[in-house]
């Protein structure tokens, strides 16, 4: 597999510009005045996309914020997220506790920040897992066809036949209540999405001229799959990853909310919302509100990021 | 501006906003079209000929705009007219035929209904008589059994039929101006002739004006009153077609004309007058090498495809009792035999669907034949399954140059990586530097500048990509190279260079070619012998001169007469 999927996808995106200019009926002869076409750096291109669509910029900013919280959360959080203090329980947001405190007096801001690591880890690992499984098997299905295609297709159909969240609940309940199993369950319910996208992209390329040429060069079928097909469907898969990342976070939080997976007192957005839900009626809205808002912003951010990445990758948008 | 002028384009400049700044696609173009006149706009890709016509219809996409100049169409200022007026104008007063007729038709709507849509849109018919008028329109474009075809979907019709439907659509409202943008590029020569004859006849009948946009000088010469030659967004020459071909004024026109393959010229004549000889003159291979044992023998080769399972089952189920059952198998290649000697070039000619590509794929061992033998240098390679052939030592002795240079290069591989692929897989050359050196040697052989080797395909021009594809094909010094329409996607001037390159390489490396093409003119230039195929069978075989000058079969005669020739 390609060792640098992100860089490669960015690279192809950044270098497609001349082709697009031609698609817009601009004569290449006129363009060739500036030839050789300089490779636009990925940063320059990203800056262009963001300047054209500021929402993508906001998404990147949010992503940066969440990543910082996930990596440095325990060190930059103002309080110990697990330290309870009954003296200051159920305090409304104030200068001392920006997001207020919960029924045990724990600082909600600190808990929200620290929880980012766990939620992000679940999302990242499950997406990586499903990318490897779904991407590879889907590519093989589209490229080889025949029984490979039928097996992969039926597995995907079977998974799709269940209500996905209920399936995830069942998997976690059956395998045991651990973070690893949440990752596995999240990966399984996302499998059909990846397998189908990869299958479709591989299928349109299976008889492309460059694949035939690779056969003539003495490449075996499996090598063609890895060196010719896979790098070419990587950009679309990267977009897919970003889009499913949001669902993965939501799924993990959802499982925790109903009591599966992560358990209290571990700070986790889903659990925190569940814990705070009973206090909303009595007016302590902030316990559920802030972790809920964090969850919403994270999902929102990954969906926008997916759109932005699609703009960066999609040649049609580069005129 | 005289009274008979229908369209007057003055000083037109069209700009496109791109990320690299403003690109002027068309600069200061002047074109006039009189009533009833046929004007050809000729140029190579990127010359701005299509953009000019889009400006006339005002359908330039949103990145582009008419920056300067004026377009007057029968007294209406097209540049400033409100969009509502333009909508009325398009279709009713001026209409357009596009390059790919299938893409121009809605695939899930019956063609008759699509014609009705246009008629109703422009109030040319009432719902009560629309069907009648649509059938009338189909009849006018000489579609046989129009009442039946009215109910046909585009996929049920051939390419030529689809183009006729598109013409019927374009002419349904009796427009004054018809813009035909490469109307026959995807069609076979015989279909091209039929379609063009039809366009010219219909427009003459109605006194319509036509703009024919084409890259093919022969086509423009045969069908146009006046020709406008464009290069890089500028008009370089405008003249009556009878004079422009006899006495071209501009150097570019002369270059274009020289590069067009035609009767009575040799391959070298296609190159520009001032071009330095690309290679040192290569001594012709000794005569006796041609008479050795055949390199490739194909005997009784058959390829059958099952007809679409469900379709044939259903068709058989619903067929009337007196109809014959649908044949289960479709023979794409129906028992053909031929041979290629060492150092020989053989042309395989035929129209689309004749089985020439299927034949070449089987010889190439990318496809398994149903029956028959493919013997290469005494060994039956047809017996090795296509999937196993990649590992066979025979693989490197048969290579191929593909039709579309863009499609045949992996967009993620640099040129040098593409050329190195067969070397890495199948040769004894090892080590980064040795492979690189071999690639550079190959690049020199095919005339590709060394500094382009590290570029990606989209950073190369069509001709450069073709050279990369050729370098890759000859990297393993194969004995047989199959050329599958290697110049079909290239401009004529580039085609001239590539054809000459192929001829030089053949001489210096002693390869044999199987040249698959639909273009008899090009085949004649490169090939010693020609095989003409039709419906999976060989209809004629002989030396190139014999087949071209004294064709025996009616089909070859028809093919030859359909080629438009510039009056040179």
Question: What does it look like?
Answer:
The complex is a heterodimer of chains A (319) and B (568). By secondary structure, chain A is mostly helical. Chain A has 13 helices and no strands. Chain A has helices at 5-15, 17-23, 28-31, 42-52, 54-76, 108-144, 146-160, 164-175, 179-205, 209-216, 221-257, 269-277, 286-313. With 568 residues, chain B is α/β, with parallel strands linked by helices. Helix content of chain B is 36%, strand content 25%. In chain B, a hairpin with a 2-residue loop joins β19 and β20. In chain B, 46% of the residues are buried. The chains are: A mainly alpha (319), B alpha/beta (568). At the A-B interface, α1, α2, α3, α10 and α11 of A face β2, α1, α15 and α17 of B.
Q: Layout of SSEs?
A:
The complex is a heterodimer of chains A (319) and B (568).
Chain A: H1 5-15, H2 17-23, H3 28-31, H4 42-52, H5 54-76, H6 108-144, H7 146-160, H8 164-175, H9 179-205, H10 209-216, H11 221-257, H12 269-277, H13 286-313
Chain B: E1 5-18, E2 21-34, E3 38-42, H1 49-57, E4 64-73, E5 76-77, H2 83-92, E6 94-97, H3 101-104, H4 111-121, H5 130-140, H6 146-149, H7 159-171, E7 177-181, H8 189-206, E8 209-214, H9 217-223, E9 226-231, E10 234-240, H10 241-246, H11 251-259, E11 294-306, H12 309-318, E12 329-341, E13 345-349, H13 356-363, E14 371-376, E15 379-380, H14 386-389, E16 398-401, H15 415-426, H16 432-445, H17 462-474, E17 480-484, H18 492-509, E18 512-517, H19 520-526, E19 529-534, E20 537-543, H20 544-549, H21 554-562
Parallel strand pairs in B: 3-8, 3-9, 6-7, 7-8, 13-18, 13-19, 16-17, 17-18
Antiparallel strand pairs in B: 1-2, 1-4, 4-5, 9-10, 11-12, 11-14, 14-15, 19-20
């Amino acid at each position: 597999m390609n060792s640098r999927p992100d860089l490669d996808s960015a690279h192809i995106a950044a270098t497609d510009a001349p082709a697009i200019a031609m698609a817009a009926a601009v004569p290449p002869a006129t363009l060739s005045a500036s030839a050789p076409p300089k490779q636009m750096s990925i940063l320059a291109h990203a800056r262009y996309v963001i300047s054209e669509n500021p929402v993508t910029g906001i998404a990147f900013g949010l992503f940066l914020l969440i990543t910082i919280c996930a990596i440095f959360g325990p060190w930059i959080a103002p309080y110990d997220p697990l330290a309870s203090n009954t003296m200051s329980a159920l305090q409304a947001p104030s200068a001392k506790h920006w997001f207020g405190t919960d029924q045990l007096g724990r600082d909600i801001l600190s808990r929200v920040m620290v929880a980012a690591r766990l939620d992000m880890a679940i999302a990242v690992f499950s997406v990586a897992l499903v990318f490897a499984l779904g991407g590879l098997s889907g590519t093989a299905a589209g490229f080889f066809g025949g029984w490979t295609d039928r097996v992969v297709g039926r597995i995907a159909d079977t998974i799709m036949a269940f209500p996905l969240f209920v399936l995830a609940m069942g998997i976690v309940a059956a395998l045991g209540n651990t973070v690893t199993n949440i990752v596995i369950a999240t990966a399984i319910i996302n499998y059909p999405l990846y397998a189908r996208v990869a299958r479709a992209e591989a299928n349109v390329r299976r008889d492309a001229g460059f694949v035939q040429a690779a056969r003539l060069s003495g490449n075996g079928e499996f090598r063609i799959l890895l060196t010719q097909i896979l790098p070419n469907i990587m950009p679309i898969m990267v977009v897919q990853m970003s889009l499913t990342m949001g669902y993965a976070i939501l799924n993990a939080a959802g499982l925790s909310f109903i009591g599966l997976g992560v358990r209290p007192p571990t700070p986790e957005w889903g659990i925190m919302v569940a814990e705070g839900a009973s206090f909303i009626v009595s007016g302590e809205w902030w316990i559920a509100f802030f972790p809920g808002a964090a969850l919403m912003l994270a999902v929102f951010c990954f969906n926008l990021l997916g759109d932005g990445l699609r703009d960066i990758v999609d040649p049609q948008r580069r005129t | 501006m005289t009274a008979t002028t229908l369209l007057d384009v003055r000083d037109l400049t069209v700009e496109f906003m791109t990320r690299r700044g403003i690109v002027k696609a068309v600069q200061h173009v002047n074109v006039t079209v009189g009533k009833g006149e046929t004007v050809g706009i000729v140029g190579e890709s990127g010359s701005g000929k299509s953009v000019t016509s889009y400006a006339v219809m005002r359908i330039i996409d949103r990145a582009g705009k008419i920056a300067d100049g004026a377009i007057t169409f029968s007294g209406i200022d097209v540049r400033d007219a409100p969009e509502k007026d333009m909508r009325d104008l398009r279709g009713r007063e001026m209409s357009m035929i596009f390059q790919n007729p299938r893409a121009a038709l809605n695939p899930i709507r019956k063609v008759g209904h699509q014609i009705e849509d246009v008629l109703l849109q422009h109030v040319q018919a009432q719902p009560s008589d629309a069907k009648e008028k649509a059938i009338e329109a189909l009849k006018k474009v000489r579609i046989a059994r129009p009442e039946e075809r009215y109910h046909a979907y585009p996929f049920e019709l051939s390419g030529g039929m689809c183009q006729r439907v598109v013409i019927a659509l374009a002419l349904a409202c009796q427009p004054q101006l018809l813009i035909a943008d490469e109307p026959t590029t995807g069609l076979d020569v015989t279909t091209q002739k039929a379609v063009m004859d039809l366009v010219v006849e219909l427009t003459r009948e109605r006194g319509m004006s036509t703009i024919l946009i084409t890259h093919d000088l022969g086509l423009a010469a045969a069908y146009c009153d006046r020709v406008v030659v464009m290069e890089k967004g500028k008009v370089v020459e405008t003249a009556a077609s009878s004079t422009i071909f006899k006495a071209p004024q501009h150097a570019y026109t002369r270059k274009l004309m020289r590069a067009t393959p035609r009767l009575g010229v040799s391959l070298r004549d296609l190159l520009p007058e001032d071009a330095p000889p690309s290679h040192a003159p290569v001594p012709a291979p000794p005569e006796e090498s041609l008479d050795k044992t055949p390199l490739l023998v194909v005997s009784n080769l058959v390829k059958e495809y099952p007809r679409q399972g469900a379709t044939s089952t259903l068709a058989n189920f619903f067929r009337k009792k007196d109809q014959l059952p649908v044949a289960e198998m479709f023979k794409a290649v129906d028992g053909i035999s031929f041979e290629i000697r060492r150092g020989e070039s053989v042309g395989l000619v035929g129209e689309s669907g004749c089985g020439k590509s299927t034949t070449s794929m089987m010889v190439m061992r990318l496809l398994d034949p149903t029956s028959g033998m493919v013997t290469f240098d005494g060994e039956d390679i047809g017996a090795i399954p296509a999937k196993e052939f990649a590992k066979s030592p025979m693989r490197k002795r048969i290579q191929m140059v593909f039709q579309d240079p863009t499609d045949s290069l992996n967009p993620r591989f640099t040129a040098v990586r593409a050329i190195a692929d067969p070397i890495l897989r199948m040769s004894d050359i090892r080590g980064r530097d040795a492979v690189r050196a071999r690639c550079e040697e190959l690049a020199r052989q095919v005339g590709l500048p060394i500094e382009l080797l590290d570029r990606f395909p989209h950073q190369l021009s069509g001709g450069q990509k073709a050279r990369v594809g050729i370098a890759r094909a000859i990297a393993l010094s194969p004995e047989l190279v199959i050329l599958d329409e290697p110049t079909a996607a290239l401009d004529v001037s580039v085609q001239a260079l590539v054809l000459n390159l192929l001829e030089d390489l053949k001489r210096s490396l002693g390869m044999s070619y199987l040249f698959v093409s639909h273009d008899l003119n090009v085949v004649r230039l490169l090939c010693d012998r020609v095989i003409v195929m039709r419906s999976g069978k060989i209809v004629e075989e002989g030396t190139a001169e014999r087949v071209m000058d004294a064709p025996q079969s009616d089909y070859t005669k028809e093919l030859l007469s359909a080629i438009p020739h510039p009056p040179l």
